[in-house]
């Protein structure tokens, strides 16, 4: 009886997977833009009218990392980690061209284009709107974002574009290693400050929470379930149980993030909109630079998409922590890094849509 039940579960799940492979979308994915907009509104309203909620959640913060947000991001990443095995990691490590695109874009181009684009808009185009001293603080926050490639959310963007999970893990690991030696000198060069230091507690906690724990959990879950019930059950039944988990986690994360920043959005609508202009342009520029670079080098789409996503998104926990330590909690630099959080999710979802619609640009 149980065997028949397992067979029916597998058959139904295979049918669902076939629909997904043929381009079908789940309920949450199909109307994702609507859900995101609703979650942003709900988050802002909670931050403004129910401030005790974000105030309570803010107590569960360590090294500038919100533990509730970390748990939700962990839930988003875990389903992706389930799909990784050691063989695929070895193969992903051989993607030298993909890693060259990622590292070249993130460390040789992105920090400097972020500085140039932000300087042009904040100190030239908007000079009659934003006071010069405040504009320089906003510029500093933008530079901190530009020098810190994404660690956690890139797993989500990769998942939504059907990116290579093992390659995404490898590129995040490589970026974290470069960040240890590259972040400080780049920020010091662009901002002309000498007392920059990497908050190691923020960096290490983020790596543990967003890379090591979900990978270890995914590896042991995969190993134990395959050993007990076989590969067919694992791939066609167990993985199917997590359909939609990543997107639901993303939506809940949005509500919390915007609840934290709700009052700032209401208090500084004009400056937030102005800061968002260069950040948005930079995000699109870096994405298309890496994406088209990958296309020219004839990389597959499941490498090109996550390779472009990691540079386009930012390690905002690190940027916020450094902005506060260097310039203070109420500084323009800190506000600019917060705007980076607000801009990132809607813009990255737009880039996810672009990546999915341009899949045919790349050889299968």
Characterization of the model:
The structure is a single chain. By secondary structure, the protein is mainly α. The chain has 17 helices and two strands. Helix content is 80%, strand content 1%. Strands 1-2 form a two-stranded antiparallel ribbon. Helix 7 (96-125) packs antiparallel against helix 8, helix 10 (165-191) packs parallel to helix 15 and helix 15 packs antiparallel against helix 17 (332-357).
Describe the structure concisely.
Helix content is 80%, strand content 1%.
Question: What topology does this entry show?
Answer:
Layout: H1 2-21, H2 27-30, H3 32-49, H4 52-58, E1 61-62, E2 65-66, H5 67-81, H6 86-93, H7 96-125, H8 132-146, H9 153-160, H10 165-191, H11 200-229, H12 231-238, H13 245-267, H14 269-296, H15 301-312, H16 316-327, H17 332-357
Antiparallel strand pairs: 1-2
Oligomeric state as shown: single chain
Strand content: under 5%
Helix and strand succession? HHHHEEHHHHHHHHHHHHH
Secondary structure class reads mainly alpha
Strand order of the main beta sheet, please?
1-2
**Termini distance?**
41 Å
Tally of extended strands?
2
Which regions have little confidence, pLDDT < 50, spanning 5+ residues? 7-25
- How many whole angstroms does the radius of gyration measure? 21 Å
**Mean pLDDT value:** 83
